[in-house]
Amino acid sequence: MARQTMVSIFPEMKAFADHTPDLEAALTVRNLTKSFGAERVLDDVSFTVAEGESLVLLGHSGSGKSTTLRLIAGLEHPDGGEIFLHGRSVERLRARDRNVGVIFQNYALFPRMTVAENIGFGLRIRGVKSHKRAEITDRMLVLIGLAEHRDKYPWQISGGQQQRVAIARALAYEPDVLLFDESFSALDPQTRVGLRRDIRALLRRLRVPALFITHDQEEAMELGDHIAILNRGRLEQTGTPDQVYNEPKTEFVATFLGAANVVAAIAHTGAIELDPERLLPIRYNSVNPGPVKVVFRPEDVVLSTPASTPETPYPLGRGEIVDVSFTGASEAVMVRLTGKGELSSISEARSQFQTGSLQRSSARSGIVIKALRTKWDARHFGLHPGDAVSVGLRHFSVLVD
Ligand SMILES: Nc1ncnc2c1ncn2[C@@H]1O[C@H](COP(=O)(O)OP(=O)(O)O)[C@@H](O)[C@H]1O
Ligand SMILES: [Mg+2]
């Protein structure tokens, strides 16, 4: 996919985006490439995990996430590029000399060892004396809240508890960085959410740098101080959860991180034209004239009565309700902008946003966009298919090819 540049319409957000914390890097990956046979799995991947921070590598299955982790852990060798732990190249270090802790999806606990023995294992192979080992193991058991389960075997504890043991086993020998490969995906949703919060709090408290790998955008948002989005072996964008969600640089990022309206438009000097009756203001000279895409989230769309103008910075004129679906906390509304124009795509990355009856292939022309309202807005101002509304945007960003 072609690289696209993003133009922020909020100068203050741009300033925020430019502010990178000046922290010593725990892990630096520079220009990493890797092929398996003819397949290029990683293409010029670079990122940094700052000291005490967590970075989430987010991408679809097969995008190269596990390969990245295996290269860092020394389980695989790169074709090109460099990996540094605390500024030191790991090129000549074998896997077991790299001092990284890896937590896999299946936890890989030793079935014939108790919880306490599992936690002490990494210390034992590093030659830590038994009394010191016992002391650290006790501390770890308290840290993960499993002191009373110390003599149980892995099959006698739950998946969430096994995950805690795997993390304690890695933390025990004070790794330079913790690497989590889809570690939460096998857990039931309730356990997963609870454990994620605990792990995040624990890592913050201990200031252990971590690289999480996941295909789950909600998990990425929750765990990452920064998120790096990987698409077919290439990094599309790296930023804080706020930056990648609200100021996506590519269509892939915009649509992967949740539902997004992506509308083809034309940039003129000082304005973006969705259709001849719909112009969005942009800062003078911030986008070169030519074809662009306007991206906005369903929750950035505001609907009001046809007689009024929505109290938003960017009015979009009149629209007609095509479909309404209530999902509990929120209501999804499909709106056709009455006038010319063509919808490029509506992404449905999250099942919670799925309406089940997307009006994409309507007989009538006109841009169809998705709006998300709170249940209170829905109650206050009820909408039904065929109703006329006024449409406005709170926020949008512009993708330039
Ligand atoms: N050892 C290997 N030999 C050949 N192909 C591999 C090997 N490991 C991974 N791949 C391929 O590399 C691609 C990326 O795999 P992986 O890094 O595991 O993706 P992810 O973890 O993002 O799902 C996949 O197409 C996979 O089949
Ligand atoms: Mg994987």
Fold-level CATH name of the largest domain: Rossmann fold
Q: What would CATH call the homologous superfamily of the largest domain?
A: P-loop containing nucleotide triphosphate hydrolases
What is the mean predicted local confidence, pLDDT?
A: 85
> Helix fraction?
10-25%
- CATH class of the largest domain, named Alpha Beta
What is this entry, summarized?
This protein is α+β, with helices and mostly antiparallel strands and 401 residues long. It is built from ten helices and 22 strands.
Could you characterize what this model shows?
- This protein has helices at residues 11-18, 65-73, 115-125, 130-143, 159-172, 189-206, 217-223, 241-246, 251-256, 375-380; strands at 5-7, 25-36, 39-50, 54-58, 80-85, 88-89, 100-103, 177-181, 210-214, 226-231, 234-239, 260-268, 271-275, 278-281, 290-296, 301-304, 314-326, 330-337, 343-347, 368-374, 388-393, 397-400.
- It has 401 residues and is an alpha+beta fold.
- It folds into two domains: 5-99 and 175-255, Rossmann fold (3-Layer(aba) Sandwich); 258-400, OB fold (Dihydrolipoamide Acetyltransferase, E2P) (Beta Barrel), CATH 2.40.50.
- α3 runs parallel beside α5.
- The radius of gyration is 25 Å and the shape is elongated.
- 41% of the residues are buried.
- The structure holds adenosine-5'-diphosphate (ADP) and magnesium ion (MG).
- Adenosine-5'-diphosphate binds at residues 36, 41, 59, 61-67.
- The site of magnesium ion has 3 residues, from α2.
